[in-house]
Structure formats: structure tokens, C-alpha cells
Design goal:
Keywords: Oxidoreductase. GO terms for molecular function: lactaldehyde reductase activity. Its EC number is 1.1.1.77. It is an enzyme of class 1 (oxidoreductase). With 383 residues, this protein is of the alpha/beta class. It folds into two domains: 172 residues, Rossmann fold, CATH 3.40.50; 196 residues, Dehydroquinate synthase-like - alpha domain (Dehydroquinate synthase-like, alpha domain). The protein contains 14 helices and nine strands. The strands form two sheets. A six-stranded parallel sheet has the order 1-9-6-4-2-3, sandwiched between helices. Strands 5-8-7 form a three-stranded mixed sheet. Helix 9 packs antiparallel against helix 10 and helix 11 packs across helix 12. The longest helix is centred in the middle third of the chain and has 22 residues. The radius of gyration is 20 Å and the shape is globular. The structure holds nicotinamide-adenine-dinucleotide and fe (ii) ion.
Length: 383
């Protein structure tokens, strides 16, 4: 058995750490940057914090801000065309998962033009060349896309969201600066934080989990459980811990996979444009309950990480229930929706949603095998 682990070549952490970007660009010999962001971030001045540093260093760049949440194929193709026209040699992604993922797809297609239809990148794509070098600056805490080998694109025409797994896409440099995340509204901090918690928990119980990935996921669960609420309420120290916690979760799950929560969340993004983190938040506790009997002693560790009293000594069946309840309680306290109806799901769509979740690449990592009918029942139970 060979266990593969892939992480960023270089990563910086800490409030204000974006200041390293001009020096890193110069040191690596780049000449022009193509900044991939979105219009909200441009309008609110978040992207401008990075471009101001480029201006001050007189480093040439162009900004591509035509990215949408649940990023569609068409915006990737527009980005590839704009990159070609710009004559840039490095990509800088400034944004949440959507700009990060759009940027990865652009970088991969520029280096591997035979995949310009985008759809053929689904799953493990046999690309030959590494992406155009990417510097990733996340503005949510978050997807950890800055350190994962994945990106997620939406096929609007076919109502599908698909995951692409490709080590060639990993950013050469990640700059995890909690100040870049500070302007996110509370609801966004809650949703993206629940996404990070889902990565940590699904990564901890996924089929491919092993000693080294456990290290990251356990640390991430403890960090996120202890800081998400305060970070959402605007505490800068908690925000710093969330920035780290979400990244550490990414160091794990990117290498070992996820499970049914992500498989079931992706169709909700494709059908109803549900924000990814909100969808995960609705699904996490119910899917944990579904997986409980296939999780060995791992829910005890989760309960301990959440600070559940007596979790270390409680009988196994009780501690499993306590772990699920701790996650459900946090989700309620944060004010995330707890039913699918709140994000627009409709009874008549459930069979199609269940089939899409069953076919999703993340489903294979789930510790308990689930049939299409069981997935449909799971959706129905929280409609
Ligand atoms: N590549 C991966 O490994 C990976 C992992 C998990 C999720 N994802 C994908 O990432 C996407 C979700 O990303 P996300 O949750 O980070 O959100 P997002 O990038 O879709 O952004 C959502 C909204 O928040 C705004 N926003 C982002 N940062 C902000 C800030 N600092 N201040 C104010 N507004 C801000 C954006 O402008 C946008 O309007 C989904 O498509 C999901 O499938 C990818
Ligand atoms: Fe996610």
C-alpha cells in the first residue's frame, strides 16, 4: 500500500501576510499576473488589498472578476480567453472557493488546451502538464481550495456540479491571511465555517483515512468546534484560528476524500444554487447519524473534540448520539438552516437529487454504502 500526500510547496499564515506576495512574485521571476476574483470582492475592496500591493511594487496585472458562485463552465472558458489576451505568466486567485476553483480550471486548461470543453476534466483528469502557477489567497474560511487538489465546476445546462481531482492544479503558494476574510458577512462566515467543519469530520471518517490524515482532521475538528461561533461573531483571534483550522482540514481531506455530505450537497448547488456551506450545514448531522454504526470509535473522538462531558468514558452507542447532537446543536446555534425546504428543495426533485448524489465522486469515500433509495430517504427526512 502506498499513501500519497500532496500539499502546497509554500504557504504563509497570519493577519497581514498578503504583504509577502510582491516579493514572492519577484523571487519566482514572474512578469505579469492575472488576478481571478469576483465582482463583490472587487466592489468591496477586498481584491484591491492585493492589487494595491502589486501597484506599489509596480508589478503588472489584469483583473478578471467575472466569476459566479457555484462557478459555471462558461466563466472558466471566458477566463481562459481573457488569460490568453492578457499575456500573463502567473495566476493570483483572490476569493472564496468559487474564484479559487475557476482559477484552477483556467490554469489547467491554459496548460492543457485539449480539455477546453471543461466537462472532460470531471473526476481524475489525465492532464499532462501542471497548471499555470497559482498563488491562492482565500477570502473565506472555508473551502481550503488553496491547498486541495480539487476544484468544483457547475454545468448549468445539464444541472450538474462536478468535482475535478488533479494534483496538477495545486497552487504553488497559498497565503492564508485572516484579514482577507474579515469583511465576510456573518451568514457567509457561518456557511463557510460549516463547510470546513464538514471537511474535517467527513475526512476523519472517510474510507481512505489513515494515521497522517487523522492528525490533520482531529486538529481541524478541535480548532473549528472551538472557534467558529466566536469567529462568526467577529472575534479576530477566533478568525485567525478558523483560517488555520480550515486549511488544516484541507491538508487532510484533499488527500483522502470526503463522503455523502458533499455528494448530497453538490446537487443542491446545481439545482437550487444553494450556497455550498449552507447545504453542508443542513446535511452534516443527519448524514453523521446515518453513518454512526460504520464509524468505529471515531465519533468518540469527535465528541471529545467538541468538549462533550464524559465523552471519553461513555458507552459507544451513547457517545455516537452525543457527537451527532453536538454538531446539530452548533449548527442551530449558528443559525444555519436545518431543513432542505429552507434552501428551496422540492419533493418532486428528490429522485433526481438522489441519483446525482449517488453518482458524485465524493460518495465513494463514505464509510457506509448508501443506495439511491437510502439517499432519497435521507433527503426526504430533512425536507
Ligand atoms: N476546491 C475545493 O477543494 C473545494 C472544497 C469545498 C468547496 N468548494 C467549492 O467552493 C465554492 C464555495 O466557495 P465559498 O463558500 O468560499 O464561497 P464563494 O466563493 O462561492 O463566495 C460566496 C459569496 O461570498 C462573497 N465573499 C467571499 N469572500 C468574501 C469576503 N471576504 N467578504 C465579503 N464577501 C465575500 C463572494 O463575493 C460571493 O458572493 C463551491 O462551489 C464549492 O463547491 C471547493
Ligand atoms: Fe466543501
Amino acid at each position: 500500500m502506498a499513501y500519497r500526500m500532496i500539499w502546497n510547496q509554500t504557504a504563509y499564515f497570519g493577519a497581514g501576510s498578503i504583504e509577502v506576495i510582491p516579493g514572492e512574485l519577484a523571487r519566482r521571476g514572474f512578469r505579469k499576473a492575472f488576478v481571478v476574483s469576483d465582482q463583490v470582492l472587487v466592489d468591496t475592496g477586498v481584491t484591491g488589498r492585493v492589487t494595491a500591493l502589486l501597484d506599489a511594487a509596480q508589478f503588472p496585472y489584469e483583473v478578471f472578476s467575472d466569476v459566479l458562485p457555484n462557478p459555471p463552465i462558461e466563466k472558466v472558458q471566458a477566463g481562459v480567453a481573457a488569460f490568453g489576451a492578457a499575456g500573463a505568466d502567473v495566476l493570483i486567485a483572490v476569493g472564496g472557493g468559487s474564484p479559487q476553483d475557476t482559477c484552477k480550471a483556467i490554469g489547467i486548461i491554459v496548460a492543457n488546451p485539449e480539455f477546453s470543453d471543461v466537462r472532460s476534466l470531471e473526476g481524475v483528469a489525465p492532464t499532462k502538464n501542471p497548471s499555470v502557477p497559482i498563488i491562492a489567497v482565500p477570502t473565506t474560511a472555508g473551502t481550503a481550495s488553496e491547498t486541495t487538489i480539487n476544484y468544483v465546476i457547475t454545468d448549468v445546462e445539464r444541472q450538474r456540479k462536478f468535482v475535478c481531482v488533479d494534483p496538477h492544479d495545486i497552487p504553488v503558494l497559498a497565503v492564508v491571511d485572516s484579514e482577507m476574510m474579515a469583511s465576510a458577512p456573518r451568514g457567509l462566515k457561518v456557511a463557510t465555517g460549516l463547510d470546513a467543519l464538514t471537511h474535517a469530520i467527513e475526512g476523519y471518517i472517510t474510507r481512505g483515512a489513515w494515521e497522517l490524515s487523522d492528525l490533520f482532521h482531529l486538529k481541524a475538528i478541535t480548532t473549528i468546534a472551538g472557534s467558529l461561533k466566536a469567529a462568526a461573531d467577529g472575534d479576530p483571534e477566533a478568525a485567525e484560528r478558523m483560517a488555520l483550522g480550515q486549511y488544516v482540514a484541507g491538508m487532510g481531506y484533499s488527500n483522502v476524500g470526503l463522503g455523502l455530505v458533499h455528494a448530497m450537497a453538490h446537487p443542491l448547488g446545481a439545482f437550487y444554487s444553494a450556497p455550498h456551506g449552507v447545504a453542508n450545514g443542513v446535511l452534516l448531522a443527519p448524514v453523521m447519524a446515518f453513518n454512526a454504526e460504520n464509524s468505529g470509535e471515531r465519533y468518540r473522538d469527535i465528541a471529545v473534540a467538541f468538549g462533550v462531558a464524559d465523552a471519553a468514558t461513555m458507552p459507544l452507542d451513547e457517545v455516537r448520539v452525543a457527537a451527532v447532537e453536538a454538531v446539530a446543536e452548533l449548527t442551530r446555534e449558528l443559525g444555519n438552516p436545518t431543513t432542505l425546504g429552507e434552501i428551496g428543495a422540492r419533493e418532486e426533485d428528490l429522485p433526481a437529487l438522489a441519483q446525482a448524489a449517488f453518482d458524485d465522486v465524493c460518495a465513494g469515500g463514505n464509510p457506509r454504502e448508501a443506495t439511491v433509495t437510502q439517499i432519497e430517504e435521507l433527503y426526504r427526512s430533512i425536507l
